[in-house]
């Protein structure tokens, strides 16, 4: 890397400078002379968060396999570094080469959290790149975004030239190849975007005209220049044959998930009605245990990590979990490598498995009942009963566990105070179960209850529902806090202020571009961080843009209404979402995909049309 | 296999890795290089290894020392490690320790200043009979006069060569920066490079 001369004076003065130097084991360096397309893979949050993202690592591997393409990483600097860079006129650079990204060809953001939208503006601004797509006239650079948030790309439509919808492994490579051709043949930016819009999974916001009704709802969306009426997401057909980066970058400094991550499957069989991930990653596609064992061992060998984590939306739903754990443990145990299993469900929890897995190091247990009463759990289709949870806890406590975390949501549709108090009851029952089951009462127990606030997310059966008011959420939090009956139970909650803004950004339309621009001008990036989140500034930005966040957050959307993300097709039919919404209103559960196919439509994305639920 | 001493350098971008970062990096590099380190017993076993005289963030060095209890590993441990380490960290030699780390009494440094003039001003400062510097000690914040514990060897152009006391008390590059900060008008980027570890009678420590 060629370090900017001013960095030498800046780095010793900022917090954790190793985040800004690159040079880690496993980074990919290519010769600039042999590079035809330079790709800046950007993550609009800090290094520690971004380097913990498996998707980013997969794309880094895939893109760097393309000959003549050099993909480098870029993260959002912490405030102290950003200020020092602005003062010393050091433009945002890529970690591998140290070169300013404004000279790159493709600038791709991976966006998984709405609160990091302002990070995109922060990074473009630090790079010296005009924020708005319309102000960038040339083919170079093309700014685009992918990731879970792009199932509603509208709030950032003003800033990106295109959005890549769905899984990026093949799509990003196709886009890069198209760009290579455009560069060779000297296309204009407009020519490139028109051609890109023909690739399945590419959404070019500027090729769609949006009009509004007087009350603010969308009146029409009209595609131009042959852009498709619906943009269907991309998926990989066969995960066993897909590239998995066993040789990946090993950060020298500590990151959030500092371990090997192994992805068991994509999609989820459960269909919890609030859960965006449960819908947008459909259909379920699993890797074979054999593939995973090979990739897991190889990853550990290449990384030197002493922990491997099995990641997926619901790990205990993986069909070959027993065989997989056996295979991995045979290798891990003699080497003191620990295996961790997040995302367990209380209804298929196996103590035997947990004990074997936790032999090396024992961690706490986490369950997510999500709601305090059976009635509300039925509404959200979380098919877990109180009995399931208490049995799982009993098993764990009698096996010697002495801490458990329970995750819930407040403000779910139809929630009453009885449901809120049900959370306290459930936590108390867990405590009672501990008293009965523990072999050692003197060690004590820690039961941690956390609540987040319900946020309506696009592509879910709950996308039409409003969020509770801030006052109501605060009242419910207090009610719950005052109802906890044991000192062994601690309660923590998410701030409703952040959830309110997150909801507006999640279900917003392209008029929110003005809000983001104003917010960024007044308060900068890093809005996902408590230190810099500025609620008053957000409200002010909405006011200045002539918009009311309540229109997005507090309104029950009509079932016939044209929604900002209706142009995106994730494979699940809207009729299915509506059916699930209606069932939820009657408190009726749906079976999981393994028990019975509900015909959501996502199977049509698969060649052969058959799900691997 | 007994205790092995790895001498390594920490240069360029690696200067911004903290002491803990370097420990973590070696811990993983050992595994990647197929070198097995003895682990401590207990609930949370950790590898038995230590780095002498932690270097301050931003300083470079060509004389770092890491001692580790090696269980087994390849013939060429230095070579295997170098293939497994990030840019800027390079093992120079792996061998039997000749002396215990507690015999390190002095460290030799090269300080590079932006120009001759500031280097000469710094030289004047370091020759002052008294240089009180605020220092964190186990008992809280205290003041230490570092003047008796530093020794100016030479100035060549923009570079100063100095010896700093390594033990009771420990004087480090940060203390020099602080001493200069109080005396010089402008804030300056000083490139600090640790060149050598020495024993009490000024022999090179290996």
Keywords:
heterodimer, A: alpha/beta, Rossmann fold, TIM Barrel, 2 domains, four-stranded parallel sheet, 14% strand, B: alpha+beta, Alpha-Beta Plaits, two-stranded antiparallel sheet, 4 helices, 36% strand
Walk me through the structure.
The complex is a heterodimer of chains A (613) and B (206). Chain A has 613 residues and is of the alpha/beta class. Chain A folds into two domains: 226 residues, 3-Layer(aba) Sandwich (Rossmann fold); 250 residues, Alpha-Beta Barrel (TIM Barrel), CATH 3.20.20. Chain A has 20 helices and 19 strands. The relative contact order of chain A is 0.11. Chain B is an alpha+beta fold and 206 residues long. Chain B folds into two domains: 95 residues, 2-Layer Sandwich (Alpha-Beta Plaits); 96 residues, Alpha-Beta Plaits (2-Layer Sandwich). Chain B is built from four helices and eleven strands, in the order βαβββαββαββββαβ. Chain B is elongated, with a radius of gyration of 18 Å. The interface between A and B is medium-sized, with 28 and 29 residues.
Please provide a brief summary of the model:
The complex is a heterodimer of chains A (613) and B (206). With 613 residues, chain A is an alpha/beta fold.
Please write out the topology:
The complex is a heterodimer of chains A (about 625) and B (about 210).
Chain A: H1 7-10, E1 37-43, H2 47-50, H3 54-64, E2 69-75, H4 79-88, E3 106-110, H5 117-127, E4 142-146, E5 162-164, H6 168-185, H7 189-196, E6 202-203, E7 208-212, E8 218-223, E9 231-232, E10 260-263, E11 265-266, H8 277-280, E12 285-286, H9 289-303, E13 307-311, H10 321-332, E14 338-340, H11 351-357, E15 365-370, H12 374-379, H13 386-398, E16 403-410, H14 417-437, E17 446-453, H15 470-483, E18 489-493, H16 496-506, H17 512-523, H18 535-544, H19 549-553, E19 568-569, H20 574-585
Chain B: E1 3-10, H1 19-32, E2 36-37, E3 49-51, E4 60-72, H2 77-82, E5 89-95, E6 106-112, H3 116-126, E7 132-137, E8 140-145, E9 150-156, E10 159-165, H4 173-183, E11 191-198
Parallel strand pairs in B: 4-11
Antiparallel strand pairs in B: 1-4, 1-5, 2-4, 3-4, 6-10, 6-11, 7-8, 9-10
